[in-house]
Amino acid sequence: xxxxxxxxxxxxxxxxxxxxxxxxxxxxxxxxxxxxxxxxxxxxxxxxxxxxxxxxxxxxxxxxxxxxxxxxxxxxxxxxxxxxxxxxxxxxxxxxxxxxxxxxxxxxxxxxxxxxxxxxxxxxxxxxxxxxxxxxxxxxxxxxxxxxxxxxxxxxxxxxxxxxxxxxxxxxxxxxxxxxxxxxxxxxxxxxxxxxxxxxxxxxxxxxxxxxxxxxxxxxxxxxxxxxxxxxxxxxxxxxxxxxxxxxxxxxxxxxxxxxxxxxxxxxxxxxxxxxxxxxxxxxxxxxxxxxxxxxxxxxxxxxxxxxxxxxxxxxxxxxxxxxxxxxxxxxxxxxxxxxxxxxxxxxxxxxxxxxxxxxxxxxxxxxxxxxxxxxxxxxxxxxxxxxxxxxxxxxxxxxxxxxxxxxxxxxxxxxxxxxxxxxx
Length: 425
Fold this sequence. Notes:
five-stranded parallel sheet
């Protein structure tokens, strides 16, 4: 009989999702935080989280959390929560490599009675169809006889200090009714917002993947409206503010759709849909439109420069912001790089300025080197691409000092008033 007090917990993958989870559990129960990146383990043991999701003080409060990067660190555990990335490849196909490798690792230490709970975003069926067979093969154990599984999708919002892991309602599920109840009880130890116990793992997987698909489609609609209104010479934000006075109008804004969730998860759902013989028209149309926004932004900037008789070939542009969202260092799937590559096609030199970004990480992930400080009177174009507080506090006057006497200021994030910028999305 499985009991809550008998659980010896491990969290596998200490990124934006896994670390906050491990830290919360580590305040009330013994937990092993496991990651294959030894540098990450070393930094956490030294008391600092480079993702800035968990403060140094919070790390200190998690007295029962121990870190490990070796297989032996997992051997004494009997419940494993998997929080590894689930990216897409260059062809927009799901890349389950991190998930499969994590399953192989756990399979090597899996024992009778153990439970493996997945949090990584996947398509419906992935836990039982892709991960469980790996656990069975490596361990030699039989699913739902010798070991069990659960699924509780992550709902972390990077950079958000209001909606934290404990204050966001958690969906839970398990491979048997008994395990579903135990998984639910486990998360209820730390989730103050409560839980929702789904009737199956597949339902929990589907619920997660449509959360972000819905957001993706809503943003795609607003992006398309912005393109239409720009052609009509109408200010998009003014339209959205007016429409937003109706109680049930959803407050979405146009922009580049990146990050580890919204720009990725719909491809997991469409992959599975196509695998079962259905072509998802609306979801893929939204993805195409959102993926094309970088090219649209650059075309608008170039047109504005040409109207001002600014030489495009050989021009210099300052791109303010590289992260996928404001006030966090997260570079995963940032679509700002689309603007960089599009500008390069016009032979425009680009300087990227982002005080939140690790230069080493930017070089490693995208082969770009952000500058430490923009030059004054240096740029033919300035693009406000990410709404960092640092940029907001600068104001239009200081930002325009980076531009030459004749330049174009493009405000993608409505940081400035309409009168203070030259063009807006």
